[in-house]
Design brief:
With about 240 residues, this protein is mainly alpha-helical. It has 7 helices and 2 strands; from the N terminus they run αααβαβααα. It is globular and about 60 Å long.
């Protein structure tokens, strides 16, 4: 997925909202799925980018839920990274369902996941930009190496694993006894120097925004804001009329 500026935030808002609605219907869950708001942190170099892929592939294994990444029963991109890059999904078009209300043979309140409103959606997983020069088998070998490293680390912990059967048997509303909460990083990089430079850039961004916002709030609408930032809302002052 590629997006710039506000386009990425808009896409994630659409995706999260629709996932909450559709998957929520399947598991009897109301409201959003994620406690935190969405945020996007920059990945500064190729090594850090590969590290982010490794983090994704470690899901389920690092938490002690399954022994192997390939065993994870939920959605995973691993089969597409090791096999055909394209995969076909079904998207249930609820707008079409709404237009069918009252039509012959369509029962009210039914059919949220009916085949009649399903549309095929093809998802293609693109290679990492730093791997585009590699052959297909080289990329698969690199992915297998990441997975082997993840699984070796998990085995070294020598902790009990829940197992696929127990994962599937859990109720969707089950919550862990202890939730891990950590601050979001400013960005991802393989060197401290890169993170230091990013931090300096961010401080300069904040300073420029605050200066422009102060001028804007004083009524100077010619103030220029840094790229990808938004002017604050200006509330008109109440005018008291004396008769």
């Amino acid at each position: 997925m590629w997006a710039r500026g506000a386009a990425l935030a808009g896409f994630m808002q659409y995706l999260r909202a629709n996932l909450s609605k559709k998957v929520g219907r399947l598991v009897d869950w109301s409201g959003g799925f994620w406690e935190r708001r969405y945020s996007a942190e920059p990945v500064l170099d190729d090594e850090a980018l590969v590290g982010r892929l490794r983090y994704v592939l470690a899901h389920g294994v690092k938490e002690g839920l399954v022994e192997r990444s390939a065993e994870w029963p939920g959605l995973t991109c691993l089969p597409q990274l090791l096999g055909p890059a394209r995969r076909l999904f079904q998207w249930f078009n609820w707008t079409r369902r709404w237009s069918k209300r009252g039509s012959e043979g369509w029962a009210a309140g039914e059919g949220r996941f009916a085949e009649e409103i399903a549309e095929p959606v093809e998802l293609e997983v693109a290679p990492l930009p730093c791997w585009e020069g590699l052959g297909e088998e080289q990329r698969r070998r690199a992915v297998r190496g990441l997975v082997e490293g993840v699984e070796a680390e998990a085995r070294a912990q020598d902790k009990p694993v829940l197992g696929v059967g127990a994962v599937r048997a859990q109720h969707p509303h089950t919550r862990p006894e202890h939730l891990k909460r950590s601050a979001r990083p400013l960005g991802h990089a393989s060197t401290r120097q890169a993170l230091k430079e990013l931090r300096e850039q961010y401080r300069a961004f904040v300073a420029a925004f605050r200066e422009a916002a102060a001028r804007w709030m004083r009524g100077d609408f010619s103030a220029r804001f840094p790229l990808f930032s938004f002017p604050p809302c200006v509330v008109p002052c109440r005018v008291t009329r004396i008769l």
